[in-house]
Amino acid sequence: MFLSRFAPQLLSVLRIIAALLFFAHGSAKFFGFPAVEGMYGIPVGSPGGIAGILEIVGGALLVIGLFSRLTAFILSGLMAVAYFMVHAPQNFHPILNSGELAIMFSFVFLYIAAAGPGPWSVDASRGKA
User: What is the pLDDT of residues 18-69, one digit of tens each?
Assistant: First the structure.
């Protein structure tokens, strides 16, 4: 119960950390940072390239908390599609198909879309949270 008083701030921390981790996927695809074998140089028009654009733009918007609910909703859908297009065909179970992160991102972003960005956001400072 003692942490409940920090729930709004922890929502902001969850949004920021999830967005930074998400942004890193896009930055690995387009900027080669961090260097991940097989990720750098993905064509922009490919499904992975389109996902990379959304990872960079959506990740950046969520880090600062701008247009958070809409961005989080779109990214939640992106991760659901990624799971069913990329991971699920490999194997039924998420641990066996490396889809745990896609599922986790999808549900964290869905929660942010519903709960809002928290108090540490551009949206909150604009009164749009």
Answer: 999 999 999 999 999 999 988 898 999 999 999 999 999 999 999 999 999 9
Please state, in angstroms and rounded to a whole number, the distance separating the CA atoms of residues 115 and 109. 10
pLDDT in tens, 74-128: 999 999 999 999 999 999 899 999 999 999 999 999 999 999 999 999 999 999 8
Would you tell me how many other CB atoms lie within 10 Å of the CB of residue 17? 12
d(CA 43, CA 40): 9
* CA nearest neighbour of 117 among 70, 78, 52: 70
Question: d(Cα 59, Cα 68) in Å, to the nearest integer?
Answer: 10
Exposure string of 20-31, with b = 16+ CB inside 10 Å and e = fewer, is eebbbbbbbbbe
pTM flag (> 0.85)? yes
Q: What are the CA-CA distances from residue 74 to residues 33, 61, 119 (Å)?
A: 24, 12, 21
